[in-house]
Design a protein that fits this description.
17 helices, five-stranded antiparallel β-sheet, single chain, three-stranded antiparallel β-sheet, about 550 residues
């Protein structure tokens, strides 16, 4: 009984940790639902002539929260009496639940004091289960209201979004590891993931693709802002017509704010070329605004260009995907040829082109996902299709970034390596010039003297250490260097001093032993030196000489 009690306690502790993970997932869902409910109730209370009940406001809040996860709603009360679908997800509102479930899954894996941390799979399952449990309750609650949810959309994409955010939180808490792949994966994939260069290139692909998507969104937002300024009067008129009191205008303003990321995606799709749909019979592209648009009165939709063929001003939107391609190339070359690396450390042209191409694929995939989330139906018949076509937008982003990013990455790499080669040649020429101004005056070629290593410097600074002598000229030429304790690393050896006697290195080595590395100062005599002086004249006679001249290691007699 005594031996089995610790295992029972550990099992109970593990169950408590999993229950806490389930509770954290439910709390994350409750926080998102509560924040939306507070805003909706505040607007309902401030409305001076609201004919709806508090229950209708709560139903609308729960429906908006489910819409933020990608669920498709059905609006029952319409002017025609036919229920109309609502499928456009406010992307700014969707950031809140995604961030909450991501943080909940990440914090669960941080162990509390005295309690073990759950496994990654257990934390993922419990957090997702708790979150989806609250989502199921909210979907059941709005079932009989003015906004009801379609059940298939609760599984896809709502449950997929929650699972993806939780998986990202678990991955972040685990240190963002790459691999290992599953056991059924080929051996080549296991070997590739084990290489550090593969990890580096995979990270470069991820960063370049994310940067390309960010530039596309920023460029799309800039296009929308310029269009709103250009059409300021129609936008102001539609804003005033939608509501007459200040609470209604605040509601319209908040709705426009949460739809700003959607407008940025629409602007990016416009710059890429495929454009976006304003109903089933109208398409807006830089080349033309064709068809009969079904435009509801809304301030952001007042920024669409005028109907008819596009002008040069509309064509200038093509600068957005060009900027995204240049960004992909820049982020690729930052790793392919970094400024502080040599030519031998730079990636090859094929590797650079492959990484840029994969980044273009990632940029296209990310843009397609955002385009699919930014559009959807706003009603039936003509209003059944709104926003960009996801596969056309993704394909256009892939083509643009590949056509601009891959050649741009190769050109930037070649330019960086060319500048580095020029800088290296200039540096070698500068290092080749001696510090003595008399070298150039005498018409002699300066010989670069290698700098002493840290080990030599430490030995020279010691009192009884050996001294390395350097010689760069003849006996009567005067160019030499000497060093010792308290002396400079390089000095002038007087020409009238006799050269020290040189002892061959082979005399101090044991029989059959190969000579060690030659010190940098020991060099063969240059042209004009004394022929009778051996090349090892300047070897020290310090402790190294004593160690190699011991009786048991000495060479045959007479070799000295």
């Amino acid at each position: 009984m005594t031996e089995s009690s610790p295992s029972l306690s550990a099992e109970q502790d593990r169950s408590a940790v999993l229950a806490l993970a389930l509770l954290r997932g439910a709390v994350a869902a409750g926080l998102g639902l509560g924040s939306v409910t507070v805003v909706v109730l505040a607007l309902w209370i401030s409305a001076p002539a609201s004919d709806s009940s508090p229950g209708s406001a709560l139903h609308a809040a729960a429906g908006l929260w489910l819409l933020a996860h990608g669920a498709e709603l059905t609006r029952a009360h319409t002017l025609s009496g036919v229920p109309a679908p609502v499928g456009i997800v406010p992307l700014l509102l969707a950031v809140v639940p995604v961030w909450l479930v991501h943080r909940a899954a990440r914090d669960v894996l941080v162990p509390d004091e005295g309690h073990p941390a759950p496994s990654a799979r257990g934390a993922f399952g419990m957090v997702v289960g708790g979150y989806l449990l609250v989502g199921a309750v909210a979907a059941y609650y709005v079932r009989g209201g003015s906004l009801s949810v379609q059940l298939p959309s609760l599984l896809f994409p709502s449950a997929v979004v929650v699972a993806g955010a939780a998986a990202a939180g678990v991955w972040t808490a685990s240190g963002r590891p790459i691999g290992p792949p599953p056991s059924w994966a080929p051996v080549s994939l296991h070997e590739a993931l084990a290489r550090s260069r593969f990890r580096e290139r995979a990270g470069t692909v991820w960063r370049a693709a994310a940067a390309g998507v960010a530039v596309l969104l920023g460029g799309g937002a800039l296009l929308v802002a310029v269009a709103l300024v250009w059409h300021a009067h129609p936008a102001q008129r539609s804003f005033v017509q939608l509501s007459g009191d200040w609470s209604g205008r605040v509601a319209v303003l908040l709705l426009a704010l949460v739809l700003v990321p959607n407008a940025a995606v629409w602007g990016a799709a416009y710059g890429l070329g495929p454009g976006f749909a304003l109903g089933t019979a109208s398409t807006v592209t830089p080349l033309a605004f064709s068809g009969r648009p079904a435009i509801p009165g809304f301030p952001l939709l007042a920024a669409v260009p005028a109907e008819g063929p596009g002008t040069v001003l509309n064509w200038s939107a093509g600068a957005v995907p060009v900027a995204a391609g240049v960004t992909v190339a820049w982020f690729t070359v930052r790793r392919a040829a970094p400024p502080d690396a040599g030519r031998e450390d730079a990636w090859g042209p094929w590797g650079t082109a492959l990484v840029a191409a994969l980044a273009a694929v990632g940029c296209g995939a990310g843009t397609a996902v955002l385009a699919a989330a930014a559009g959807g139906p706003l009603g039936t018949r003509a209003l059944a299709e709104f926003g960009p076509v996801w596969w056309l937008t993704g394909a256009a982003a892939l083509v643009w970034t590949a056509l601009v990013g891959v050649p741009g990455a190769l050109l930037l790499r070649a330019w960086r390596l060319r500048e580095r080669d020029e800088d290296g040649e200039d540096g070698e020429e500068a290092a080749y010039v001696a510090g003595d101004p008399g070298v150039a005056a005498a018409g002699k070629t300066a010989v670069p003297v290698p700098e002493p290593s840290s080990g030599d410097a430490s030995r020279e600074s010691g009192g009884g250490g050996r001294r390395w002598w350097r010689r760069s000229g003849g006996r009567d030429g005067g160019g030499g260097a000497g060093g010792g304790a308290g002396e400079e690393a390089a000095g002038t050896v007087p020409g009238d001093e006799p050269a020290p006697r040189r002892t061959p290195v082979a005399a101090s080595l044991p029989a059959g032993a190969a000579p060690g590395p030659v010190p940098p100062a020991a060099h063969p005599p240059a042209q004009g030196e004394d022929e009778g002086v051996a090349p090892y004249d300047f070897l020290p006679t310090g402790p190294w000489r004593e160690r190699t001249a011991r009786p048991e290691e000495a060479g045959p007699s007479g070799s000295a």
